[in-house]
Amino acid sequence: MSYASQQAMIDRFSETELVQLTDRAGANTIDVAVLQRALDDADAEINGYLASRYTLPLATVPQILVGYASDIARYRLYDDRASEQVTQRYSQAISFLKLLATGKISLGVPIGADPQPSGGGAAIAGDCPTFTRESLKDFNA
Asked: 10 in the Ramachandran plot: left (φ > 0), alpha (ψ -120 to 50) or beta?
């Protein structure tokens, strides 16, 4: 499940900006593969923070994550040319995700269950040993 979509990016930042950021072939259109890679990277970054507290994938995507995923994907598309505003929005998204990961704020969706111990102890099972004192008594080194 993706947190943001191509349309969410267009709605937030304009098709013109996304063409400028993704069009590497000079076709004057959004390169869907380039945009999807940035969206996938944003999803992975968000999941890295959410996985410690929430069961993934989330059943529903809270609207706030759509905005932050869009900001992260946009930052990734700018690469090393990001403006101060783009960098600041990315930093705000990461700050928010850190607060989520530590439990200082919540998404308002159920938190994942704590892993339960599986019970029982360690055990070793296997065939009888091949080499024993008895089978090696005639061996001379």
From this structure: alpha
Residue found by looking up tokens 């009888």 in the block: 128
Q: How confident is the model at residue 119 (pLDDT cuts 50, 70, 90)?
A: low
Q: What does the radius of gyration of the chain's CA atoms come to, in whole angstroms?
A: 26
Q: How far apart are CA 78 and CA 19, in angstroms?
A: 12
Instruction: Indicate the pTM of the whole model.
Output: 0.77
The 10s digit of each residue's pLDDT in 47-89 is: 999 998 999 999 899 999 999 999 999 999 998 899 999 999 9
Give per-residue burial for 21-60: e unless 16+ CB within 10 Å, then b: bbeeeeeeebbeebbeebbebbbebbbebbeeebeeebee
SS3 per-residue string spanning 41-58: HHHHHHHHHHCCCCCCCC
